[in-house]
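Review form for a predicted model. The reviewer records the input and the model, then writes brief findings.
Reviewer: anonymous (R2)
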Amino acid sequence: MVETSYLIALGSNRRHGRHGAPAKVVQAAIGTLGDLGTVERVSRIRTTPALGPAGRAFANAAVRLRTDLDPEELLDALKAIEREYGRRPGRRWGARVLDLDIILWSEGARGGPGLIVPHPEYRNRRFVLDPLADIAPDWVDPLTGATVRQSLYRLGRLAPVDRALRRS
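Model under review:
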């Protein structure tokens, strides 16, 4: 299979028994992603407020991963890593040891049960766009034609009410 690139978002807001605080969890997970291919770029790790009922602040980052896995295989591998780090099924928006999401794929858009690429909400989430802009500011969203940088700029220019309407 031909190698392709993915932009992966990482987040944590719970301590891990071995890795420690959320930023350390994200750092360790970045190393684990290297088992799936080549980690080409890594954003800095940011602390961001929790969205929804998660409560605690998150450590967020993004990586550019080059791998020969197709999107469904990569999603399965990411979910397995989350489980290795102690993630358990729970309520949406809840606290989590590790969250890994495929945001964009170099081959364009993909949809199916359990997987939609580009991630449907990333354009509305500064905690995803900021790290993506560190590593791939000129990556073009295949659905909108906007770069990551343009999406970040647009999100910053929208009033809070406009952001809420975009999510509807």
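Findings: The chain has five helices and seven strands.
Further findings: The longest helix spans residues 71-84.
Recommendation: see findings above.
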